[in-house]
User: Which sequence fits this backbone?
């Protein structure tokens, strides 16, 4: 974790007999000041992706969070090898696992070179790697890694695997963004995870890096340079998964001089989807999935024509990674109005949101940035002055016995048991002055309450 340049008031504004307690409070103040939930535009923490002993850069490509078990996973790709050069001299081949609460790295797995997309399903982490004609499977319980070859109907390797999605009946959908460069237009496969066999191949000419199995039973495939035509605009194709026939198509009106291709697809809760384009468009597209038509177009504040990721945010917002603008921006989902930009980015490539935190794989760095969400708080920062100190249990006691007001009741719930009582004040005082147990999540990095209760925050 990187700390901001800050100062510490010394002595602290409280009289204590033991000088070590003064030092403890100062160090606590330093830690909390480095992670201010009010400064949502600045990272509150980072997850390092540096691979020990690596001879190549440890640049991350994507990040995904397992909400059920509160672990995160980062595909560490390194750099693209120049044509004709050895891949292992430039690219990485690791997946980093970290605790999504403490942000500490716990395990590192080896897969193929240049891992890109990640998919969690039934206790396994599936990984596609653009340099290997195989789908990698990590058994998260045992840590074992195996791979499944991906081939076309002739038995030839399918190259450039780059997109993963869960299928309709537990199968894994795998996409290739290599067009016909590998000699085949069978660019979408369905793999049975039990038999590890390819059970369906779809012939779709063009580059594909995202896809989704929709609730209406159709397969939605955004296609770059459709028909292997590099002058063609990208389109969305709805496919019958049984026979691969086209149900409907929607072409996007973008500048085709920069080889534009769909880069990310986010299915929203309201029956629409957000789509970003890598090159040729400075807008995010919202698609009505029921009518299979364009619902809205959201121009980006920066005018950036390369977007790499889009993610539904909280409070009726969405987040978009503007790659060369080096920012992740938040927009209003209804109006498309710009709200804020998240700082600390360098070539942001993928976004994940979990536990009141925004995780972004920074492809120009060797880390994942962590930003506080708009509803986040730090546990036990009861007066919301961006630090935890003696003023916080005093305010809690005033609330319990003197009718004082607290704007964020969740922050006052030391143990996260869903109730505010004297034990919370005692627990916090013990933590501050007697080396007692730490407050429950989210502490010391801002986040949201992981469990539903009647306590809430206002403002």
Assistant:
């Amino acid at each position: 974790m990187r700390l901001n340049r800050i100062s510490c008031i010394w002595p602290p504004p409280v009289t204590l007999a033991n000088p070590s307690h003064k030092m403890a409070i100062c160090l606590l103040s330093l830690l909390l000041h480095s992670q201010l939930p009010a400064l949502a535009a600045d990272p509150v923490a980072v997850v390092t992706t540096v691979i020990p002993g690596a001879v190549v850069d440890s640049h991350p490509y994507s990040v995904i969070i397992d909400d059920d078990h509160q672990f995160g996973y980062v595909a560490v790709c390194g750099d693209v090898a120049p044509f004709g050069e050895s891949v292992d001299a430039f690219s990485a081949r690791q997946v980093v696992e970290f605790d999504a609460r403490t942000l500490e790295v716990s395990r590192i797995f080896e897969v193929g070179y240049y891992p890109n997309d990640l998919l969690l399903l039934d206790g396994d982490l599936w990984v596609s790697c653009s340099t290997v004609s195989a789908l990698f499977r990590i058994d998260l319980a045992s840590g074992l890694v195996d791979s499944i070859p991906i081939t076309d109907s002739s038995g030839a390797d399918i190259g450039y695997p780059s997109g993963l999605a869960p299928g309709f009946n537990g199968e894994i959908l795998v996409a290739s963004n290599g067009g016909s460069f590998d000699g085949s237009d069978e660019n979408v496969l369905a793999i049975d995870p039990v038999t590890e066999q390819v059970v369906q191949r779809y012939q779709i000419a063009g580059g594909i890096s995202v896809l989704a199995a929709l609730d209406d039973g159709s397969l939605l495939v955004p296609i770059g340079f459709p028909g292997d035509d590099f002058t063609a605009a990208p389109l969305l194709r709805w496919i019958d998964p049984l026979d691969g026939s086209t149900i409907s198509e929607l072409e996007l009106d973008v500048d085709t001089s920069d080889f534009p291709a769909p880069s990310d697809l986010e299915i929203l809760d309201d029956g629409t989807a957000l789509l970003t384009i890598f090159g040729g468009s400075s807008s995010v597209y919202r698609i009505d999935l029921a009518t299979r038509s364009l619902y809205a177009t959201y121009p980006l504040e920066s005018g950036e024509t390369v977007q790499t990721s889009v993610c539904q945010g909280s409070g009726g917002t969405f987040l978009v990674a503007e790659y060369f603008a080096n920012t992740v921006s938040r927009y209003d989902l209804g109006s498309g109005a710009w709200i804020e930009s998240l700082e600390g980015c360098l070539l942001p490539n993928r976004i994940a949101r979990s536990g009141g935190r925004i995780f972004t794989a920074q492809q120009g760095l060797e880390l994942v940035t962590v930003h506080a969400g708009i509803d986040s708080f730090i546990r036990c920062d009861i007066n919301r002055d961006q630090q935890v100190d003696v003023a916080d249990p005093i305010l809690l006691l005033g609330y319990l016995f003197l009718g004082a007001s607290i704007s964020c009741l969740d922050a006052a719930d030391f143990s996260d048991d869903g109730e505010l009582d004297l034990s919370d004040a005692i627990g916090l005082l013990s933590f501050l002055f007697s080396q007692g147990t730490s407050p429950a999540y989210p502490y010391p990095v801002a986040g949201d309450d992981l469990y539903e209760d009647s306590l809430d925050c206002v403002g």
About this structure: The longest strand covers residues 91-99. Helices lie at 19-33, 391-402, 409-412, 422-433. DSSP finds four helices and 28 strands in the chain.
